Amino acid sequence: MTKLLLKLVLLFVAISYGLWKLSASTEFQLFGELIHKVDTDQKLVALTFDDGPTPHYTAGVLQLLELYQVKATFFVTGAETQRYMTQAKQIVAAGHQLGNHSWSHPRMLFMSLDEINREIESTDQQIRAAGFEGDILFRPPYGKKLVLLPWYLAQTDRTSIMWDIAPETFDEETEDPQTMAAEVLEQVQPGSIVLLHLMYKNREASRAALPIIIKGLKAKGYTMVKVSDLLAAQKQATVEQ
Ligand SMILES: [Zn+2]
After folding, report:
1. What is the DSSP code (8-state) at residue 53?
2. Whether residue 1 has pLDDT greater than 80
3. Domains in the chain, number
4. Average pLDDT over all residues of the chain
5. DSSP, residue by residue, 86-115
6. So what's the pLDDT on residue 221?
7. Residue 124 known to be catalytic
8. Name one GO biological process term (predicted).
9. Is 50 a catalytic residue?
10. Share of the chain above pLDDT 70, in %
């Protein structure tokens, strides 16, 4: 009996571990479209910035993007967009893309459909209020999704945007801008999506890495575009006659 119990416990642990890994996958979700990189021959890359907007760092980021004539995609939360609407509008006015990163940045793994609906729809409303007119793409908080969230996204015809390059370590003590930039420049491929967090105080290294990344990508012949433009450059499957 105890052996059976042990086996059941091990099975439970294995399944839990499997589901946890699945929930964090950047390349697979159960329903709907998930993009972590675009299949293209063109040297295009999308810089994506999660969280915010915040009053302290938005202007600096926008100035930098303007200086290098780069377009980017900001996955914002609904709550911060409502609170810092001025900054959200500035992002849109500068020609960048806003994406939906939920209202309150919860872990959405075990949420009800009602809660998921509120998190996503209310954020879309703020993004529209900021003046953004294109398709609203979605990025799950913490990159986490399992069953109901992907199902909801599929039902409402939303594309989840993940990433293939995430140079941050989330260890502020050791994070180094040069190392982060080198990682991006080493891993970049046509169609890559880069994830950075620039909007909070503790992301000093990421903000310092951004100009190095931009200059390095340009030196390698890359153009930085909004995620929607990257999606539009997706290679069409050739139809055999
Ligand atoms: Zn986030």
Report:
1. -
2. no
3. 1
4. 92
5. HHHHHHHHTT-EEEE--SS----TT--HHH
6. 98
7. no
8. carbohydrate metabolic process
9. yes
10. 98
